[in-house]
Amino acid sequence: MRISRASVVVTIAIAALVVAGARPAAAADSIDPAADFKAFRDYYTKRFPNVPLNDFVNGPYSMDAELRKQWEAIDDFPPYDFAVDRGKEMFATPFKNGKSYGDCFPDKGIGIRQNYPYFDLKSGEVITLELALNRCREANGEEPYSYVKDEMASLTAYMAFTSRGKPFDIKIPNDPRALAAYQNGEEYFYARRGQLNFSCASCHVQNPGNHIRTEVLAPALGIVAAMPIYRSEWNGMGTMSRRLVTCNSQVRGVPLKPQDELYRDVEYYLSYMSNGLPISGPGARP
Amino acid sequence: MRGAIAQGSALFVAAVLAAVLFANAPASAQALPGQALAFDRSKGNCLTCHDIKGGDSPGNLGPPLSDMKARFPDRKELAAIVFDETKRNPQTVMPPFGRNLILTDGEIEAIVDFLYTR
Amino acid sequence: MRTYLFVAVVCLLTGAARAASTEADFKTALAAAEAAEQDAGALKNQWIPTEQALAAAKKAAAAGDFDAAVVQAKEAEALAKASIVQAKEQQSAWRAGVIR
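The joint structure predicted for all components is written out below.
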């Protein structure tokens, strides 16, 4: 097996970081996102051979025909429409200093949602869309929004809407810090937590299509493509941050702060695993 | 008259002793009947994953719980599964109700009693 | 009457000496529980029932019921320790479930 120079450099760099006690990196295995990606994709397509690849982004509706019928019935009046409209209005409204959201993003923030999260090599961290929006606000003298409430949901709903159908294009640069963030996200996804001892994988890898009480579980493949979602159970919109927080508390784990490094890492991991799948957000869920 | 007072004293003493003893028992001493525990979302919450006769809208992450006496003739084995199924199956999604202090030993026993009626 | 009262008082005292927790007992138990919960926090793996038990312990103590307060604090410590065990095990155990 021919080992590329790049992977040698990466491995040495990771080893150096581990020794230096920096951001926790991999143990014995080297990190290979491309191999993980293929294995992840194959797992779901083999388990659900009758689900078209792009349909996984519809979560529980790709798993359950009855549920899909109910979803299609409300599609004429999608419950997230008000959030998209509000987000569009917020985008059009300048900050106090005259600048607006478009000034913080490539292409004025239109049709770019599929590129998030990305790894910022300058600051050495994962930048999610929600984080980028609040940093935009703060850079322009505005107070940041709560990550779990309606303003953030409206902004991300609008941005997702402008990217509908565009395939996820998440990049993991050949940088030990980016690879470590990716792997920390993978670890977060598979590690058990909370008094109930569930990992994200317990439901979304081991039990997609099964149901807890009456709730059909979504596959992890494509699971972030529909964010933010209007959730009937919540009678309102839910951001990515809100979803992660509630997943934690549902297994009786104290949630991390929204946009905690680990939350950003797991969003990075899941988004990369969904590369090539179309943005379906904003979504509607039971 | 003195005999009656002596009898009264003995009863009073017994009552005081009992009150003192039970006042210091741990809060979880009074266990609910097994079915209530099994179906209670804050306790066993078994219906979230298991179909059990007498319960509504069950989930299907775990197998239906029926014929339990025949399937688990060894009571200790069934109790151990509820206590910590990861010991048998490291990849199980069943919460370790005993190890993670979700249910007390007494509550697990009561649930086993109930499961044996299913 | 005097025998009656004497026996009752002895019983109460015996019972009391066997079980009553003091404020000092509570403070010790709470400190241990909070230290464990802080360790769980450093591992980013705190449990909600731990926080609930800590709150219940403090509430009972504020009401002067140190027996209940100590029971809750000890429960909180046990929960915090269990969450630490979970986090430490998962540092390596997580790999077993990865799709390969």
